[in-house]
Amino acid sequence: MVNGILIDERDNVAVVLKPMEKQELIRYMQREIADTVRVLDDIPIYHKIAVRGIAKGTYVIKYGEIIGIAMETIRRGQHVHIHNIESTKKNEGE
């Protein structure tokens, strides 16, 4: 059963389609190719999971777009959210 979505071949994160618990397997499709990732953290529904390792200071890419920069090294299978990425957008007024 597919329980994750990865839209663009450049994406380094997928979106989980149901709450995932640590050690579960997420199965996602990219075009006609399926892949799996072992979940390293509990992940709420519709949050992101790293499908590849993401080095500290590099871009986090979702749906083919840069959505942030990794504040720490993120391992494949880790939850990706505001605790380990920061926005690339500046606050208005800066």
Order of helices and strands: EEEEEEEEE
How many whole angstroms does the radius of gyration measure?
13 Å
Total helix count?
Answer: 0
| Structural class by helix and strand composition | mainly beta
How are the strands of the biggest sheet laid out side by side?
4-3-1-2-5-8
Description:
GO terms for molecular function: lyase activity. Keywords: Lyase. This is SAF domain-containing protein. Helix content is 0%, strand content 37%. By secondary structure, the protein is mainly beta. The protein has a single domain (2-85), classed as Archaeosine Trna-guanine Transglycosylase, Chain: A, domain 4 (Roll). The chain has a six-stranded mixed sheet, with no helix packed on it. A three-stranded antiparallel sheet has the order 6-7-9, with no helix packed on it. Strand 6 (59-62) and strand 7 form a beta hairpin.
Considering the chains and any ligands shown, give keywords for the structure.
94 residues; Archaeosine Trna-guanine Transglycosylase, Chain: A, domain 4; single chain; 3-stranded antiparallel sheet; mainly beta
Strand-helix topology:
Blueprint: E1 4-5, E2 13-16, E3 25-30, E4 33-38, E5 48-50, E6 59-62, E7 65-70, E8 79-80, E9 85-86
Parallel strand pairs: 1-3
Antiparallel strand pairs: 1-2, 2-5, 3-4, 5-8, 6-7, 7-9
Write a brief structural summary:
The protein is an all-beta fold and 94 residues long.
